[in-house]
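User: structure tokens for this one?
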Amino acid sequence: MRNTHLLMLALLVAFALVGCGGGTAQQPTATPESRPTSTPRPTSTPRPTSTPRPTAAPTATPAPTIATGSSSGQLRPVVIDRLVTFQHPNGLFSIDVPDGWNVDDSSTDAAALYLWTDEAENALIIVSVSESAEQLTQDELQERLTSFVESFSGEQDFSMDPPEQLQSGGVQIIWSYTAQASGGVQARLLANSFIYQNGDKVSLLTFGIPNEQFDDLKDSLNDILNSYEVDPSVPLSADSAVNRTVYDFSRDDGNWSVEDTDSIRAAIVNGTYDITLRDTDIYYLTAPDFDPTTDLEVSADVLIVGDSRAGVAVRYGVGTPSDTRDYYTCWIDGNNSYGCFVSVNDRWTTLQEKTSARAIKPGQVNRVALRAEGDRITFSVNGVELQTFTDGRVTSGQPALYLENFSTEAGAVYDNVVITTPK
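Assistant:
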């Protein structure tokens, strides 16, 4: 099925280039603003983690519509004797693959692309990892995977099951068509394709096996699928000039403030960091024990809960006097609005008044990012740059998460916090 392999790789390259965002910057304002304070304090040490993402097992539908062999020859069996672990050179991902299968690295700047085939090239495994600053919804992941699979709709006897949204947050599609195997044998190729996002990494996995051999190999394919791990802290490019620290809150490793008081509840629950402000009209900043630095970016998945504003902060630190705080922050609310300000000794100066932006998805998880480079501060939501400011009042500090509420108890859920600093 050699022509199938080349076509899949070409389509995967195109798939990796889909979904890039852009935007325009606006000019800041300079209006003083004050708010009540509530400044609890966390500490500790960051540890990046590699996070497995479980998915559903490969499935043997749709059923073939024609015979899986021909009178001209016999389909050679696909052999999976044992599995060995493949580790991406940069540690981006790892996966157990059949021992003795051939591997082809077709990676580009846009995606890591790896193809494994058996000796006869009648079966294949494809892993594609690309980056998306935007946190994609499950429906958007489904659209991407459906587009990839439907690229094969012109193949002989093509059929596709409806996409299945998985509890892991990913999507699975089972599909098949008739292809020419080695020896000129016409055979039904059964494929299972999966897609999911972890941090800013979007993974697409495809398994293709002759339909008549699927049942014999299903357990091995399931083991391969369950072995796949991706580390979202690792950049795609080996010569990247940045360091990344990722917090996916898969465990409580003590890096973030955890507390339960009359005023504030902060807890790591089911792989997310949940903060609720019980007192009204207060704000909250929380940061890991991260060395202060000048140039950095912090991004996070944010889900607004109630009447709150939540976002990220850069150059967060203790001011003078010691009970005040300095930082830059930008926030979003539960609708489609955002704003930005700088705090110097707990005195706020608005950099962007509350304004709406189409990039913000009301009531959904949004990925927010704030970057500080010299005196340039840039805010993005879902990969779209919304604001760029020039301001030099705060020169160094930590990354942090920011939250404020109003007249009622409210909060936010955070996940996949990524801190990026220059090497």
